Amino acid sequence: MHLEHVLKKLQNRTPGILGGNQYSKFAVLLPLIEKEDDLHVLFEVRAFDLRRQPGEICFPGGKIESTDRNEQHTAIRETSEELGVRFDNIKNVYPLDYMVSPYGTIIYPFVGTIHDPASMKPNPSEVAEFFTVPISFFLKTKPDRYKVHFKVTPEENFPFHLIAGGENYNWQMQQVEELFYLYDGKVIWGLTARVLNHFLDVIRDE
Known about the structure:
The protein is an alpha+beta fold and 206 residues long. The protein is 19% helix and 34% strand. It has helices spanning 3-10, 71-83, 135-139, 190-203, and strands at residues 24-35, 38-46, 57-58, 61-63, 90-95, 99-100, 105-114, 127-134, 144-149, 175-183, 186-189. The strands form two sheets. Strands 1, 2, 3, 4, 5, 6, 7 and 8 form an eight-stranded mixed β-sheet that branches. A three-stranded antiparallel β-sheet has the order 9-10-11.
């Protein structure tokens, strides 16, 4: 193989995430609404008969489809479908940092404002209810933090004889910090709490 051929393959290449094509990709929207002279964050409670995570609190969102123009379009489309809000009532949509989770997914979070929230008609097949929380509550409330540790378990026929240290190889153990916000009997945790906490870090005055 010639050097010119290699360089041609590398020119103008946009780097991505190594192995990213094996990940499921999702986009979510952190919805903001103006309410009672304050700014509120809107949350959904997932329908209780859903196969995945029934009854959990989340932001609207879903899997990126091939027909979506981009990740932002996915977040807006899913919000419109789940909350029954018109596309043109979802405005000021801006990206947050995307996340590569240890569970084989890449999450693209966005923040946006929902106008005319009184017109919302949530889809009962996906949303049991929705509620809002003033941003002021989160800005003065620190989440509880707990760690989840992952254990490395190689498969039965793993070739330990091919690696330095063999069965005593010093694996780098991974851990994930889970955040919990408690509000009026509601538990906001997991991915939703992580996106929320990142958003608060972005807007918080130093």
